[in-house]
Amino acid sequence: MDTILAAEPEIRLTAFLSVLAAMALWELAAPRRRRDIPRVIRWSNNLALVVIDTAILRLSFPILAVGLAVMGEERGWGLFNTIGAPYWLAVVLSMLLLDLAIYLQHVMFHAVPTLWRLHRMHHADLEFDATTGLRFHPIEILISMAIKLSLVAALGPPAVAVLLFEIILNATALFNHANINLPRPVDRWLRWIVVTPDMHRVHHSVDPRETNSNYGFNLPWWDRLMGTYVAQPAKGHEGMTIGIEQFRTTRDLWVDKMLIQPLRGPASGHALDAPALSPTEQEQSLDSQTHSSTVSDTSKRNT
Questions:
Q1: DSSP per residue over 211-242, as a string?
Q2: CA dihedral 233, 203, 126, 262 (to 10 degrees)
Q3: Chain centroid offset of residue 116 CA
Q4: Which of 80, 83, 57 is nearest to 69 (CA)?
Q5: Phi, psi (deg, nearest 5) at residue 62
Q6: Measuring CA to CA, which residue among 174, 119, 132 is closest to residue 35?
Q7: 3-class DSSP state for residue 38?
Q8: Over the stretch 255-269, which tens digit does the pLDDT of each residue have?
Q9: Is 223 left (phi over 0), alpha (psi -120 to 50) or beta?
């Protein structure tokens, strides 16, 4: 185990590059949606952002999640190290709780307007493929790491659980953002176990009511339990529009424009920003209000 933990950077990099290459080949062999923007524009800028994020993260934090978990085990910090839970149970519960925290954090980044300004850069990609899962603003990455370190310090999870969670989360983020065409019966079965591309693609719809759903990155259960699950996009996977309304040009896909997106325009489209009703929905709402008013007046007269 010490050898595995010592080789953490090499293990994570190997797993990342292997899954990224596999998803890229799968996207070429069996794409789900037609690609309209040259891959070189999106991939070069999305991958450049990964380099920037990694450099800033390493410079900002002297220790990351796995290292803090090792330190916690050595010094007896955190819940699981204090209560002396069985190792296997601590591993399983730690991975479940870390995944739940990622779900709740994702909801928070959609609900708080200031945080949504950061997170919407992830949604502003005009197409949906594996590199979309790597496209996060550096400040969001720093906030996410601060939250993760706080959770690791409080829980005291086994270091191997944190390492496994990090590897699995990175792999599933690449998988569920991939533009791959899973057979429909496979997707229906698989989305009970892991977030599938069709399930997560709904989250990248331009429709705010679909944007603010399907928050899970790894395990799909939290969306079903919390009532944020949407099975399919209203316009279908081929007909839906990817992205957000504010940034629709190819120039917005360049890394310099991505980095300043939090400063541009209003923070509309977040989870607490009620989406505009369609004319049909407005008419239905007006009919409902009129009916309620009539019932109320009749009740008062009878009284």
A1: HTS---SS-SHHHHHHT----S-TTHHHHPPB
A2: 140
A3: 12
A4: 80
A5: -70, -20
A6: 132
A7: coil
A8: 999 999 999 988 888
A9: alpha
Strand partners, 1: none
| CA pair distance 162, 52, nearest whole angstrom | 23
Q: Is the dihedral of CA 139, 141, 144, 148 positive or negative?
A: negative
Q: Which structure tokens are listed for 115?
A: 């945080």
Inter-axis angle of helices 159-176 and 8-29, to 10 degrees?
20
Residue found under tokens 């109320």:
296
Pick the closest to residue 139 from 178, 166, 109 (CA basis): 109
Q: What is the 3-state secondary structure (H, E, C) of 237-297?
A: HHHCCECCCCCCCHHHHCHHHHHCHHHCCCCCCCCCCCCCCCHHHHHHHHHHHHHHHHHHH
Question: pLDDT tens for residues 71-120?
Answer: 998 898 999 999 988 999 999 999 999 999 999 999 999 999 999 999 99
**Which pair of tokens denotes residue 275?**
């989406």
Residue 178 and residue 130: Cα distance in Å, rounded? 4
Average pLDDT over residues 171-187: 95
Query: What's the full length of the chain, in residues?
Result: 303
Identity at 196, one-letter amino acid code: T
Dihedral, CA of residue 136, residue 140, residue 145 and residue 147, to nearest 10: -130
- The answer to whether residues 106 and 217 touch, using CB atoms and an 8 Å cutoff, is yes
CA pair distance 55, 275, nearest whole angstrom: 37
